[in-house]
Amino acid sequence: MNAHERLDAPSPAARVATGPQADPALLTPRFPVVTIMGHVDHGKTTLLDKFRKTQVAAMEVGGITQHIGAFLVSLPSGEKITFLDTPGHAAFSAMRARGAQVTDIVVLVVAADDGVMKQTVESIQHAKEAQVPIVLAINKCDRTDADPEKVKKELLAYDVICEDYGGDVQAVHVSALTGDNLMALAEATIALAEMLELKADPTGPVEGTVIESFTDKGRGPVTTAIIQRGTLRKGSILVAGKSWAKVRLMFDENGKPLNEAYPSMPVGIIGWRDLPSAGDEILEVESEPRAREVVDWRKIEQKEEKGKDDLKIMEEKRKEHQEAYQKARAKYGSLHWKKRSYMKYLERKEQRPVKPKEKAEKDSNVLPIIIKGDVDGSVEAILNLLDTYDAPHECELQLVHFGLGDISENDVNFAETFDGVIYGFNVDAGKAIQQSAAQKGVKIKLHKIIYHLIEDLQEELSSRLPHRLEEYPIGEACILATFSVTEGKRKVPVAGCRVQKGQLEKQKKFKLIRNGQVIWKGSLTSLKHHKDDVSVIKSGMDCGLSLDDEKVELKVGDEVVCYEENEVPAKTSWDPGF
């Protein structure tokens, strides 16, 4: 079954015309699609920068690639390579996986002074899952502490065996900074591509993959795609996910218009009715009515699947409630309690959702957020990070809305309604929007590096937590003797102590520690030096003291600690794994 046979619809008339399998005689050689993978800051973007002879690395914020880019590079030998520049940041693991699914060869970049890191291992796993061969680029070999042999040995543990060690993985020592040996890396990649005998049918119906998608103010939905079969031309009718397009304009990675795009070529496509998702398969259909029919059918299918999922979730919730109800019934056995509990359940079940703003006024331990991003892949990466949030007992995190494009008035109104915070990634908020947000008390937080956005979110979550009390010791004393004094008709236990550290201040708080365990906390009723009442006893001095609880037994060897309590801001325990 070829790709077009997967566009099934409910009737034979609604099926996509299934073109025949490509005739081997029609297959022609194509250039390789190569994915650059590796750990963050190991030099992937700088490596591509040298190949492209542009300054992409300098334009990247913080030197970190924020989303997938596709570039066609012409080498001095006349050969061509399409590079997918996948992000090295941990947050974009899903995008790296998507890149590996459309690539022919993976160039694994490992810094010679750093060695194998977490995202290096993830990249290897993505390449293996996609069954894609690897070329090893050991970068930063110009540094004095570079150790390429160490890198090769470390990779043995992950079944990446270089030719030096009897394997089939080519290893090239390079320096992206100085440009040393980059042509050797390109030649190694081309040589591997020749062995793979990469071919495609440029005459069949178009097939491809959406690498990235975003909305442009002037041009509408835009996608970057890799063509895998056929020749894409202006006017072609395409289907991707639950969107379709009549190609209005095509352009290359430099923004120059294209008339045709062949297999292995990266191409920007304008003309989409809606925005497809990164990773969606692109298929050509014969007409606009056919495209609408396929998209409508896919939407119906999705709705039906969602209905099934919702029913499944409802059934699971019903079972959970039933189990909880049975446990409570067995525990309490009270008819009154059972009736009250069941009525509360029905009340919750029938209750209409209240505005989160009203809820937040009752429970400040809730943080509603709105996410806006520049491209589909960036938003997906942020949402994947939000999925790791595992501290709802501290503060409930509510994702009330997400989307693409600059911050709009609707976003501000939405945030005002939900008493939420707007987080923007690589997007803008105009002056009028910011003024409107300020008037409505809505926070807008804009970031260009994803982990800065998450750090900001962690701070916002922490600000919603109640302050915690921290104890700061002021002085410590050891009980050397115990005795009692008569005050009126009662005997008061007294501890004879020597201050060993700091000082004891009568007005502060105290605790009594025995064998490492705190057995009392409170305040002193008296603090004396010899027979004189004092407010402070300093280190090295002897004193007598009595506690505000006369029932507490005092023993020789017990430790008396003088301390004060200060409120400090709490910090969320959520760790997204940076």
TrEMBL record:
Keywords: Coiled coil, GTP-binding, Initiation factor, Mitochondrion, Nucleotide-binding, Phosphoprotein, Protein biosynthesis, Transit peptide. Belongs to the TRAFAC class translation factor GTPase superfamily. Classic translation factor GTPase family. IF-2 subfamily. Monomer. The lineage of its organism: Eukaryota, Metazoa, Chordata, Craniata, Vertebrata. Residues 304-331 form a coiled coil. One of the essential components for the initiation of protein synthesis. Protects formylmethionyl-tRNA from spontaneous hydrolysis and promotes its binding to the 30S ribosomal subunits. Also involved in the hydrolysis of GTP during the formation of the 70S ribosomal complex. This is Translation initiation factor IF-2, mitochondrial. Residues 1-21 are annotated as: Disordered. It comes from Neotoma lepida.
